[in-house]
Amino acid sequence: MTVVVKIGGARAVDPEGALADVASLVDEGEEVVLTHGGSTAVDETLEELGEEPTYVETPGGVVGRFTDEETMDVFKMVMPGKLNTDLVESLQNEGVNAVGLSGTDGKLLEGKRKSAVRVKEDGKKKIKRGDHSGTIDSVNADLLETVLAGGYTPVVSVPVLGREKEGGYTAVNADADRAAASIAGALEADLVVLTDVSGIYEDPDDESTKIDSAVTPAEFSAVKDAAEGFMTKKVMAAEEALEGGAASVTVASANADEPITSALAGAGTTLEPGALADAEAEETANTEVTQ
């Protein structure tokens, strides 16, 4: 079994337990690919440099970062630099022979660069140019499988290779959850998304309303309806992972005891591909009826 683990970059996320759990899984013979976020560290570094992080809202209501050239330079410094190196160092101290990779290494993660994004400002739709982000459409699974077969544990971060319209590549930002989803789909792996909450809640302010799993179309619809704020992107990423071939997706707390092992055993909110396929079929059938 291959497990793709994504450790969130929020301040409230403590990676120590997850890293120890990676070591346990590797010691038991499991293949693990670790990915990570880092938006908080990027924002802090930007502020230290006198720059203000820029966030925008899409016409669909999703809030995300706008990555200009200066922000991209900070991403290159922080994500595959300090954060990735720190995780590799920690895993080595746990006895795991980890290898740090960015999406640009060996064309690991590749997609089309966006030079502009559609945003909503003051209720109006606008085009904001100068963006340095992209959407991943290609994963070099052979590279990851070669690294895993050699007994190493990959630790993957953005940036990714963005294809330019006129040819060539530029390193660009991509959402870390969606990067993990792309990798899990390409490897047909279980994906565990570790964050600062214990799962997806029907009421985002009430942990007691946690949704345990989505194995039916109705449950999957409930998960999508419940997602808001930062969880919206995680549910989008989960859907992409399952569509891409992932065996399952679990959103769970990074701060639990043995967070990865417990997530795989049923903690958190688990989404399965059958529910997604059934939900899409039901949606298509409903659409055909109303046409």
From TrEMBL:
It catalyses: [amino-group carrier protein]-C-terminal-N-(1,4-dicarboxybutan-1-yl)-L-glutamine + ATP = [amino-group carrier protein]-C-terminal-N-(1-carboxy-5-phosphooxy-5-oxopentan-1-yl)-L-glutamine + ADP; [amino-group carrier protein]-C-terminal-gamma-(L-glutamyl)-L-glutamate + ATP = [amino-group carrier protein]-C-terminal-gamma-(5-phospho-L-glutamyl)-L-glutamate + ADP. Its EC number is 2.7.2.17, 2.7.2.19. It comes from the Archaea. Residues 263-291 are annotated as: Disordered. One of its GO terms (molecular function) is N2-acetyl-L-aminoadipate kinase activity. GO terms for cellular component: cytoplasm. GO terms for biological process: L-arginine biosynthetic process via ornithine; lysine biosynthetic process via aminoadipic acid. The keyword Repeat does not apply. InterPro entries: AceGlu_kinase-like_sf (IPR036393), AcgluKinase_fam (IPR004662), Asp/Glu/Uridylate_kinase (IPR001048), Glu/AcGlu_kinase (IPR001057), LysZ (IPR037529). The record marks K6, K234 as: Transition state stabilizer. SUPFAM superfamilies: Carbamate kinase-like. Belongs to the acetylglutamate kinase family. LysZ subfamily. Residues 1-252 form the Aspartate/glutamate/uridylate kinase domain. Its main location: cytoplasm. NCBIfam families: argB (TIGR00761), PRK14058.1-1 (NF010659), PRK14058.1-3 (NF010661). The keyword Membrane does not apply. Pathway: Amino-acid biosynthesis; L-arginine biosynthesis; Amino-acid biosynthesis; L-lysine biosynthesis via AAA pathway; L-lysine from L-alpha-aminoadipate (Thermus route): step 2/5. Keywords: Amino-acid biosynthesis, Arginine biosynthesis, ATP-binding, Cytoplasm, Kinase, Lysine biosynthesis, Nucleotide-binding, Transferase. It is found in: Cytoplasm. This is Putative [LysW]-aminoadipate/[LysW]-glutamate kinase. It is an enzyme of class 2 (transferase).
